């Protein structure tokens, strides 16, 4: 079972769906065939009953034509009897597959007229002015003789040379009809002799031999099956005609299915029967259906297989290729079909969302890696100089120098150590903030009071600057007061540090209608290409890149703190200097 399941799962989707479709189609075809056979069976039976009803009416009409009432019923071997039988013989010569028995009573005698078993032969003569047809009645021959005649007629090859006949029929002419165009002779056969081998067949009920006829015929029935159907139907009629019917006799007749009608006109009873060979009838009815169904079955499966491949497999192949692009981080080549409204479209849309998130994270990781590399490079650069100075001063102290130089070198080492400690603390602060997505502790802070407190703290920095304040009272914000003091303090400190003496510094805090906070100072403008980079780690403009200008982490830390509070900061050049603008995001 596991091996079968593994084999099944290793097949492609199109193959598995086509196999299931084949099973369902086979089931549908089987049910359709069963219902069709049932309907065909009913249709064939209905056709046969309709056919028997037509024959029944035809035979009764012929009977009423010859026998207008019960007082004129013909006796056996009477002239009217042979006229009626001649009339029926002309009809049965083309309808020998449906036997009948007409039964009526004349006085105390029961007369049974069995449908004549006839063959028709056209006798041609060069000097004859009309067509001459001979109807030969073989009804008085036994079933065994008829079978022997049928077999002999099928095996003997006619000798056409010189029009030599190979049958001679002896009997009595019981009817003759002729007009200016044709002549029909009704001959009741008594003896048939084969010209080829001299074999002779005799009638069971002899009639006087008054004439003979040499003629050709190669069969009495179209084939042996038709002959068997005829005699089976005749036996069935004879069984129903008898009064001593038994179940044993009925069982003997059940080798075939029969359609039969028993009717009459008050003074006679007509028994009609037709032996149905359902196998043959159904095979004729569905002669080309199996081939058409097999062709249609294969065509439907092929179209279904191709349809599944076009509708499911090929889109899945394309989705797989797109997923491989994502797996190899080839985002530029990633173009899935998201316009589909089915499950594959849902899969492509989910894959697009995943690729977008992955692309964003990949870009973020690459940006973080770049920043780390920049961080290491900048930190190494800023740490290299003080370490070199400390090493130089330490080497000088190791030598025998004067106490004054020794004290000066120690002071320099202490100063450089302080700068290194300051740089390391700023790097640690930035790293901690960079890993923080959200503030843990928030309180309501009066931003106006916080700025006034900072301005008082940094008053010495603005002692030689023209400070202008536009502070709106009552502006509150939720956040960390320590971090906010550091961020706004950095902006105020930079404005004071980079503005010249007697330069103008303007600080604005307003509730709405524009930026939340601005600080503008007079200084030389910063190149436009460098403005967005002011908030990068360790970035300092070329003019400010000196040891007195800080480490280049202040604005980066400020931007991170403001971002944690839902604020954004940017720098713009003005006509007289630079303006740092804080807005609510």
Question: How would you describe this protein?
Answer:
- The chain is of the alpha+beta class and 585 residues long.
- 49% of the residues lie in helices and 20% in strands.
- It has 13 helices and 17 strands.
- The chain has helices at residues 2-10, 13-66, 79-92, 143-155, 224-241, 247-252, 278-285, 289-327, 343-398, 403-434, 447-457, 481-497, 554-564, and strands at residues 100-106, 109-114, 118-123, 131-137, 167-178, 182-194, 200-202, 211-215, 257-264, 268-276, 443-446, 466-471, 476-479, 504-509, 517-522, 567-573, 577-584.
- Strands 3, 4, 5, 6, 7 and 8 form a 6-stranded mixed sheet that branches. A 5-stranded mixed sheet has the order 12-14-15-17-16, with helices on one face. A 4-stranded antiparallel sheet has the order 2-1-10-9.
- β16 (567-573) and β17 form a beta hairpin.
- α2 packs antiparallel against α8 and α9 packs antiparallel against α10.
- The longest helix has 56 residues, at 343-398.
- It is rod-shaped and about 175 Å long.
- The relative contact order is 0.06.
- Mean pLDDT is 78; it is low at 542-548.
Characteristics of this structure?
585 residues, alpha+beta, 20% strand
Summarize this entry quickly.
The protein is an alpha+beta fold and 585 residues long.
List the SSEs and their pairings:
Layout: H1 2-10, H2 13-66, H3 79-92, E1 100-106, E2 109-114, E3 118-123, E4 131-137, H4 143-155, E5 167-178, E6 182-194, E7 200-202, E8 211-215, H5 224-241, H6 247-252, E9 257-264, E10 268-276, H7 278-285, H8 289-327, H9 343-398, H10 403-434, E11 443-446, H11 447-457, E12 466-471, E13 476-479, H12 481-497, E14 504-509, E15 517-522, H13 554-564, E16 567-573, E17 577-584
Parallel strand pairs: 4-6, 12-14
Antiparallel strand pairs: 1-2, 1-10, 3-4, 5-6, 5-8, 6-7, 9-10, 11-13, 14-15, 15-17, 16-17
Helix pairs in contact: 2-3, 2-7, 2-8, 8-9, 9-10, 10-13, 11-12, 12-13
């Amino acid at each position: 079972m596991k091996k079968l399941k593994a084999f099944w799962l290793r097949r492609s989707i199109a193959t598995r769906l086509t196999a299931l479709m084949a099973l369902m189609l086979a089931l549908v075809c089987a049910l359709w065939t069963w219902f069709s056979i049932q309907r065909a069976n009913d249709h064939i039976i209905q056709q046969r009953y309709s056919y028997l009803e037509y024959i029944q009416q035809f035979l009764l009409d012929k009977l009423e034509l010859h026998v207008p009432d019960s007082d004129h019923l013909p006796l056996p071997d009477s002239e009217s009897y042979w006229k009626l039988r001649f009339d029926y013989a002309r009809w049965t010569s083309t309808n020998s597959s449906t036997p009948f028995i007409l039964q009526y009573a004349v006085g105390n005698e029961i007369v049974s007229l069995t449908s004549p078993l006839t063959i028709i032969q056209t006798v041609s003569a060069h000097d004859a002015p009309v067509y001459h047809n001979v109807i030969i009645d073989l009804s008085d021959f036994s079933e065994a003789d008829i079978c022997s005649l049928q077999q002999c007629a099928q095996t003997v090859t006619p000798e056409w040379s010189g029009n030599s006949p190979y049958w001679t029929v002896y009997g009595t002419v019981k009817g003759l009809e002729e007009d200016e165009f044709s002549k029909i002779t009704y001959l009741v056969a008594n003896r048939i002799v084969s010209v080829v081998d001299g074999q002779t067949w005799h009638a069971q009920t002899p009639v006087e031999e008054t004439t003979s006829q040499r003629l050709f015929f190669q069969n009495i029935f179209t084939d042996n099956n038709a002959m068997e159907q005829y005699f089976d139907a005749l036996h069935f009629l004879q069984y129903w005609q008898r009064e001593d019917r038994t179940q044993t006799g009925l069982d003997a007749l059940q080798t075939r299915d029969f359609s039969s009608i028993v009717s009459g006109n008050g003074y006679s009873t007509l028994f009609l029967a037709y032996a149905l060979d359902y196998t043959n009838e159904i095979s004729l009815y569905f002669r080309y259906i199996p081939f058409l169904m097999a062709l249609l079955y294969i065509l439907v499966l092929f179209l279904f297989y191709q349809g599944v491949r076009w509708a499911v497999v090929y889109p899945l192949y394309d989705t797989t290729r797109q997923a491989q692009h994502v797996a190899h981080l080839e985002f530029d080549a990633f173009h899935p079909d998201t316009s589909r409204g089915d499950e594959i479209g849902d899969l492509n849309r989910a894959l697009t969302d995943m690729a977008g998130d992955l692309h964003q994270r990949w870009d973020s990781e690459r940006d973080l890696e770049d920043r780390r590399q920049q961080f290491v490079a900048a930190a190494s650069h800023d740490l290299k100089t003080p370490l070199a100075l400390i090493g130089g001063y330490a080497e000088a102290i190791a030598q025998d120098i004067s106490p004054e130089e020794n004290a000066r070198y120690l002071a320099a080492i202490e100063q450089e150590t302080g700068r290194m400690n300051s740089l390391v603390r700023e790097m640690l602060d930035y790293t901690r903030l960079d890993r923080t997505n959200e503030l843990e502790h928030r309180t309501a802070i009066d931003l106006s009071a916080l700025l006034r407190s900072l301005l008082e703290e940094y008053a010495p920095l603005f002692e030689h600057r023209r400070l202008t304040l536009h502070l709106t009272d009552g502006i509150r914000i939720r956040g960390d007061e320590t971090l906010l003091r550091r961020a706004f303090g950095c902006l105020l400190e930079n404005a004071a540090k980079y503005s010249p003496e007697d330069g103008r510094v303007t600080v604005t805090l307003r509730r709405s209608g524009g930026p939340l906070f601005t600080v503008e100072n007079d200084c030389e403008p910063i190149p436009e290409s460098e403005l967005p980079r002011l908030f990068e780690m360790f970035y300092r403009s070329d003019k400010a890149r000196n040891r007195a200008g800080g480490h280049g982490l202040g604005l980066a830390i400020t931007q991170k703190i403001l971002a944690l509070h839902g604020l954004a900061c940017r720098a713009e050049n003005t006509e007289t200097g630079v303006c740092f603008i804080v807005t609510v995001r």
